[in-house]
Amino acid sequence: MSAISEMPVLIDEAVDQVDRSQVAVVIPTCNARKYWTALSTGLRLQGLPPSQVFIVDSSSSDGTRELAAQEGYQVFRIDRRDFNHGGTRKLAVDLVPWASVVVYLTQDAVLATPDSIDLLLSAFEDRSVAAAYGRQLPRLVAGPIEAHARLFNYPAKSEVRDFESRHTLGIKAAFLSNSFSAYRVSELLEVGGFPSDVIMAEDAIVAGRLLISGWKTAYVAEAQVYHSHAFTLAQEFQRYFDTGVYHRQETWLTERFGGPGGEGKRFVMSELAYLAHHHVHLLPYALIRTASKAIGYQLGLRKSSLGAEWSRRLSYHKGYWDNLTAV
């Protein structure tokens, strides 16, 4: 998609209450047994009927589907080769035609409180809000670099964004994470739903489309999950390579919201200051990581010159390239 045009939206400003019986929780899984106890415990505490939880499983071999069925969840199996960050979530919307709101979780996101989902849904009391995402807290075992990334990207203050927010937030205005998010189904479909041909960031693409179309998105800091990753140096390189690929593919996003340079510099300065105050011995390693991410991103922008085989080798999401070559 190369461009998005503004579409005027007439919005009723009255308070809107979400009908919990029309809320579907969708969780893509693949060999999720090691996360299952924490995941299912958090879900049970939310008070939603198990029949409203949909597990879209990528052919797990560790008994994930059986565990989900025992909980009373709806289970749908797909071939592992068919998984796609956007396409699989798009499929899930088709599975719940009765839902007015879809909540997305990842299998390793642990709901932090019994009202995490209700707090996230409270964003929709504002009828102009079409999508919302919650705060991701670092895992209890997270190291300093892992913890800082979550503290920087998911602050303690909630925020509602519109298209004008790009003037102060830049590309961060379109940030949204499907590790813990919710969408009004009608508005999600209005902007075309999740794209099925992207390597990553299907959530940010939809957020950008919604903002351009006149809707708002909300960050709800009170709605919380525990979710973070201890990526290795190589994995960070690969993930930023994929970010470059995604920005090259979705050029409209950076054209309309601005490039990632300003936000990237702000993150680096924040990380260095955080480590200088608490873990000064990690500063050299952090600088190496920063350089690795920058190189990966620049190479991702040049994916066409590298070709599909080299791009696959450098990528974190290798299945994306496998599907490309299979077409």
Please describe the biggest sheet, giving its number of strands, its sense, and whether it closes into a barrel. Answer: 9 strands, mixed
Oligomer: single chain
Residue-averaged pLDDT = 93
Number of helices: 15
* Residues in helices, as a percent range: 40-55%
The radius of gyration is: 19 Å
Distance between the termini: 19 Å
Instruction: Report the β-strand fraction as a percent range.
Output: 15-25%
Specify the overall morphology: globular
Class from secondary-structure proportions: alpha/beta
Low-pLDDT residue intervals, each spanning 5 or more residues: 1-14
Order of helices and strands: EHEHEHEEHEHEHEHHEHHHHHHH
Tell how many strands the DSSP assignment holds: 9
Structural features, described:
The protein has helices at 33-45, 64-71, 85-95, 116-121, 144-153, 166-169, 185-190, 202-212, 233-249, 251-257, 261-278, 283-301, 303-306, 308-314, 318-326, and strands spanning 23-29, 53-57, 74-77, 101-105, 110-111, 129-137, 159-161, 180-184, 216-226. The protein has 327 residues and is α/β, with parallel strands linked by helices. Helix 2 (64-71) links the parallel strand 2 and strand 3 (74-77). Helix 14 (308-314) packs antiparallel against helix 15. The chain is globular. It starts with 22 loop residues before the first strand and ends with a helix. The relative contact order is 0.14.
Characteristic terms for this protein:
nine-stranded mixed beta sheet, globular, 327 residues, alpha/beta, 9 strands, 15 helices
